[in-house]
Write a structure and sequence with these properties.
TIM Barrel, globular, 29% helix, binds pyridoxal-5'-phosphate, Lyase, Ornithine Decarboxylase, Chain A, domain 1, nine-stranded mixed beta sheet
Length: 414
């Protein structure tokens, strides 16, 4: 069953028509499919059968509590990057022993919190961070489990903003420096070496860079063993891409099988950190056409969602399919699908061939990952509601903000 399919011509989320969702919850509105999220996690967990493996969902892709809770209930762990994400996953029912903490800028306070609840591992990204973590752990009389995020310097061939495994990126420890830093870590009293970690980029459509990165990481694992440093887990990061338009995204099996083969026979627990792949195609952004403004050079369809809701097109030039909820008869023509925000970069799609009328509902597809989490209140626009569909049921999992919410934290001068 596809999460979003047509019934009698009308686009549905599972068994609920998007027309009904718009009527009940208003637009713009994020719509997620429970079934699609669970199926995506199952695909990873199935491949890991027979291995000591753990899927740690990268929370930054979509951090709604309902999404996190669904995944926690199915045994997923979490990859977090901030105190906010840590407290979200705990609130959603995560097991602390299934949380890994990534990110280049962990504060001392964040380290304290994570040590206090006893997370599985800190993915350390620099020598300076290692030193700080050792100090924080010492002050608490604790030992911090760590892996070093190693930068294997492979080209993931993705958008420069979401490529992370190259030397020029801010992430991780340079491959050549990793061995020495592990030796240093081994001498720190309040650090316990647990694993090794790498994450080479996002929206990867080719399985080859993952294998290339793993080969380099495994070579390092062997060098470390020669130094007497034995690791108990390897964290292969996230990054597996999805289909937005017509891309051939590898299936989970063809991505993981070559990696698992390389790992067979090693006494290493396997951690994965997928984000986009678990939620990207499980969500859409529902919007309504406010005005049509045909012109000499371009035709603008002004919709009620904007770049503050879905930033990816403006930020990365990303493509999202845009489809009518109820297709109408008539000659399609090319439309610029734009929002009301006062920026020329505020677009959701260029030159889309559609037959449109004011009032029509449009679904902006593949918006489950890096959608709501990147939305802002620019132009004092309230953030949209989020709805989770489960079969024939709908659940409002985040209410639409009110304008009062927007200035609740502000005050006038006395
Ligand atoms: C962003 C990120 C992920 C998830 O990336 P996806 O491309 O969404 O799978 C995993 N691990 C780390 C360290 C990340 O920064």
């Amino acid at each position: 069953m596809s999460a979003f399919a047509r019934r009698d011509g009308v686009l549905n989320a599972e068994s609920v028509s998007l027309t009904d969702i718009a009527a009940e919850f208003g637009t713009p509105c994020w719509v997620y499919s429970r079934h699609a999220i669970e199926a995506a996690l199952d695909e990873f967990q199935r491949e890991l059968t027979g291995f000591d493996g753990l899927v740690c969902y990268a929370v930054k892709a979509n951090s709604n509590l309902a999404v996190l809770n669904l995944l926690a209930r199915r045994g997923a762990g979490f990859d977090i990057v901030s105190e906010g994400e840590l407290r979200r996953v705990l609130n959603a029912g995560a097991d602390p022993r299934q949380i890994v903490f990534s990110g280049v800028g962990k504060t001392a306070r964040e380290m304290e919190l994570a040590l206090d609840i006893g997370i599985l591992c800190f993915n350390v990204e620099s020598a300076a961070e290692l030193e700080r973590l050792d100090g924080v752990a010492a002050a608490m009389g604790k030992t911090a489990p760590i892996s070093l995020r190693v930068n294997p310097d492979v080209d993931a061939k993705t958008h420069p903003y979401i490529s992370t495994g190259l030397k020029e990126n801010k992430f991780g420890v340079a491959y050549e420096d990793a061995r020495a830093l592990y030796r240093q870590a081994a001498n720190l009293a309040n650090i316990e070496i647990s694993g090794i970690d790498c994450h080479i980029g996002s929206q990867l459509l080719d399985a080859a860079p993952f294998a290339e990165a793993l080969d380099k990481v495994l070579a390092l694992v062997d060098q470390l063993a020669a130094d007497g440093i034995v690791l108990d887990h390897i964290d292969l990061g996230g990054g597996l891409g999805i289909r937005y338009r017509d891309e051939d995204a590898p299936n989970v099996k063809s991505y993981l099988q070559p990696l698992l083969q390389k790992l067979a026979g090693r006494q290493l627990r396997i951690l994965l950190e997928p984000g986009r792949r678990l939620v990207g195609n499980a969500g859409l952004l529902l919007t309504r056409v406010e005005y049509l403004k045909p012109g000499e050079i371009k035709n603008f369809a002004i919709v009620d969602a904007a770049m503050n809701d879905l930033a990816r097109p403006a930020l990365y030039g990303s493509w999202h399919d845009i489809v009518p909820v109820v297709p109408r008869a008539g000659l399609p023509m090319p439309w610029e699908i734009v929002g009301p925000v006062c920026e020329s970069g505020d677009f959701l799609g260029h030159g889309r061939e559609l037959a449109l009328a004011a009032g029509d509902l449009l679904a902006i597809m593949s918006a489950g990952a890096y959608g709501m989490v990147m939305s802002s209140n620019y132009n004092s626009r309230v953030r949209a509601a989020e709805v989770m569909v489960d079969g024939a049921q709908t659940h409002l999992v985040r209410r639409r903000e009110t304008v009062e919410d927007l200035y609740a934290l502000e005050c006038r001068l006395p």
